[in-house]
Amino acid sequence: MNCLLCHSPYNPIASWRQLLFLEDLDVLCPRCRGLFKLIDGRLCEMCGRPLEEAKPSLCADCLRWQEDEQWGRVLVKNRSVYIYNDWMKEVVALWKFRGDYVIVEAFRRPFSQAFRRHFGRDWHIVPIPLSPERLYERGFNQAEALARLLPFPCFPWLSRKHSEKQSKKSRRERLETDNPFFLSGHPPINGKRIVLIDDIYTTGITVRHAARVLLEAGAAEVGALTLIRA
Amino acid sequence: MCIQRPSCVPHLVSWLNGQRLPREQLPFSDEEIKAAVQASWVHEHPGLIKTSSGWRCMRCGNEDARLFASFPCARCGTDCCYCRKCLMMGRISSCTHLVHVTMPLPSERHEAPLVWDGTLSAAQEDAAMAVKQAVLDRSELLVWAVCGAGKTEILFPAIAAALEKGWRVGLATPRTDVVRELAPRFRQAFPRVPLAVWYGGSEERGRIASLVLSTTHQLLRAYRVFDAMIVDEVDAFPYSAEPMLEYAVSQARKEQSSLIYLTATPSRAWQLDIARGKRQAAVIPARYHGHPLPVPVFEWCGNWRKRLERGRLPENVLAWVLHRLAQGKQAFLFVPHIDELEAVTRLLQRVDPRIVGVHAEAPDRAEHVQEFRDGRVPLLVTTTILERGVTVPNIDVAVLGAEDRIFTESALVQIAGRVGRHAAFPDGDVRFFHHGKTNEMVRARRHILRMNEEAKKRGLLRP
């Protein structure tokens, strides 16, 4: 087998577990797999970032969110799979910006496991959409690619209008500017628990904007599962 | 509408010039492109085509099924196949179209373009004349020159002759560092000739000039551009087995054009062709300084991998290193893979903390190389031939695990070729530590001995 990322040949080690449960073999060589850093241990209850043992149960960012009356309770929680280390930055650049779609396969197992652990089948999966312009430019939506890894249906309940790239604005500006998300048609959201899927949680503004639209349409609660906590 | 304003169509043509690019990379509207296609100024064809066994990427020539994947494409709305091989140049998928200009490109003659007052050695002179003739005849020629023969200067008379005729010359090599290192030398030799340097991230990439220096990847932009195509296969280890370069060259040169290969280590098939007279070759068996090539010495070192696992180096390898350290002579130690590189470096750093390890993708590679050049690092453990510029005058070289598959004949010849490059220090030690001699090792040694013999026969060595 050749590694999906470095293309060098390797021998996947088949364990008894894999034989018994017919699990797929890893598409990455042990070296590439080892460079990803999973988030584990103690987490911020809110945003899922790793915390030191001595710290309070919310990180500084989330304490600040809580003080915000308008935005503090929009999201129940975010959970992420990986830390945003240099290796992950490289891989994301190749996957998202160069457009090497198939790399998403490397995240199939860890992403599904995180979904089962932190959410579960009674949550409805809604990927964060791209604007039609960005979708055309990129050719695919990376959040949808992640949502499709999960063994449950996903619902395209949200749409997004085109706005300039977020990274150029400050936090306050981003919060205040018009919410780019809106409902696609009239989806049956009332009383549902919804988990948003996205690639990266950085400031949490994107998922909160999306969550707000869903809550206003009657969703019971909204959480988020993201591949990376930056 | 564009049809009423035909002036915008030549603009597209001159913008595109000799490039072949995915349609979505052109800064022109759909109508403009459509009009140009209808007027047959430009031609459009699919980026991927179906073959009997799978797909072929028309930009990079990739046919390896493992390097294709598919995705739900938002542009065409189907499950679209794409090429993973040339992804860094923008994704080519089965709904992508490549666009190129059909008309002949304008050409420009240059009077007496060569300003270079160096002299060629007798062996270089012979090869230079052969290259010039091949360029003028639009034929193919292989220049087989040993490491340190001085390959670049050999090209100057031929390039000058082509430029005088108003031809375009392209020189391709697999590595960015080589392109960047060659650019100033060519600018100096041809100061009045427009020159474009193409590598990932360069502003000039894709710009067609009379003289173009390009990496393999960037050469994929050019389509039927060059009258004279020179391929510097270089000290290419570990990049030598790259079929993409061959494809890029076949697309970038004109149908009527010369093709010059420069190499120190032709493949076995080519060596056979030369011996049978099936391939034209100019051989330079001696270095410019006229001293013979250092011949590798084989030394058995037992099961070195097992020893590494136990945290020890084979005694003779350690002794070799200690000897260099005691003498104060700088050295390269080649190992097959990154894992071993790390283990060996850790062990050697106990002996001398200044020793460093560098692998091909190491981000701090340039710094360590500079430290080595400055003499602050006594020994460099590495998995790859470093920049060409690293012709450190007085060094020794050893390979640990020369039996590994990665060390082919050409890789070993290239490694041995690092030693004795400078006229002041034409000799040095080349040691292959192995756990079982391989055919490749024997061939590498024989290759070097044969070159020395030939040089002697032709009277190219200093008495």
Textual characterization of the structure:
The complex is a heterodimer of chains A (230) and B (463). With 230 residues, chain A is α/β, with parallel strands linked by helices. Chain A folds into two domains: 1-35, no CATH class; 45-229, Rossmann fold (3-Layer(aba) Sandwich). Chain A contains nine helices and six strands. Chain A has helices at residues 16-21, 30-35, 60-67, 86-97, 108-118, 132-138, 142-147, 171-176, 205-216; strands at 78-83, 124-127, 158-160, 181-183, 193-201, 221-229. A four-stranded parallel sheet of chain A has the order 1-6-5-2. In chain A, strands 3-4 form a two-stranded antiparallel sheet. The longest helix of chain A has 12 residues, at 86-97. Chain A is globular. The longest helix of chain B has 19 residues, at 439-457. In chain B, strand 19, helix 13 (409-416) and strand 20 form a beta-alpha-beta unit. Chain B has 463 residues and is α/β, with parallel strands linked by helices. In chain B, helix 3 runs parallel beside helix 4. In chain B, the strands form five sheets. A seven-stranded parallel sheet of chain B has the order 10-11-9-12-13-8-14, with helices on both faces. In chain B, strands 15-20-19-16-18-17 form a six-stranded parallel sheet, with helices on both faces. The model of chain B is unreliable at 1-6 (pLDDT under 50). Chain B: Pfam families: Helicase_C, ResIII. Chain B: This is ComF operon protein A, DNA transporter ATPase. Chain B: Keywords: ATP-binding, DNA-binding, Helicase, Hydrolase, Nucleotide-binding.
What would the keywords be for this entry?
heterodimer, A: 230 residues, alpha/beta, Rossmann fold, 2 domains, four-stranded parallel β-sheet, two-stranded antiparallel sheet, 32% helix, B: Rossmann fold, 20 strands, 33% helix, PRTase-like (chain A)
